[in-house]
Design brief:
This protein is α+β, with helices and mostly antiparallel strands. It has three helices and seven strands. The chain has helices at about 1-20, 65-75, 120-130; strands at about 50-55, 60, 80-85, 95, 100-105, 115-120, 135-140.
Length: about 150
């Protein structure tokens, strides 16, 4: 009887482990070989890179947040496990949905979109104050943002 009880407990543990939320992680960017899925340009500035990890664990990489958002807007999020962008201050990967963004037409990014990602609102505000300009954006704002290439005046 004790053996059956132990087997039943073990089955429940395995079932619960199988129901846990899957963790998606970005892969390192290779500036020698990685190419943006949207604009097909080499990712030479990895500090601005974006990445989508699909639920099947495939990855797509992007050279700019604008390219990543173009993919998400055109294709939806159904098959996406997580999306990441490199954080401006630390150069570490952060989830695009958790990031706070700053836009200025004068901020340089590889495709000239001018949107930078920060892991905290305080960091984003400090960056705007340091640079004397910028507009604070949240992830939801990126779906209605004008992603046309912005000129530096």
């Amino acid at each position: 009887m004790k053996g059956k009880w132990l087997i039943a407990v073990w089955i429940v543990v395995l079932l619960l482990a199988g129901c846990s939320e899957k963790e998606y992680k970005p892969k390192p960017i290779s500036v020698e070989t990685d190419v943006c899925e949207i604009c097909k340009m080499s990712i030479t500035h990895a500090n601005y890179a974006g990445q989508i990890v699909f639920k099947n664990n495939d990855h797509l990489v992007f050279d700019d947040l604008g390219c990543l958002m173009e993919y998400m807007i055109d294709n939806g999020e159904d098959k996406i496990g997580a999306a990441f962008i490199v954080e401006e201050a630390s150069s570490k990967w952060i989830n695009v949905k958790d990031a706070v963004y700053v836009y200025s037409q004068h901020y340089w990014t590889p495709m000239n979109y001018g949107v930078l990602a920060f892991d905290t609102e305080e960091g984003a505000i400090a960056y705007m104050e340091e640079n004397g300009e910028g507009e604070l954006l949240q992830f939801e704002d990126l779906y209605s943002f004008n992603w046309g290439v912005h000129s530096h005046e």
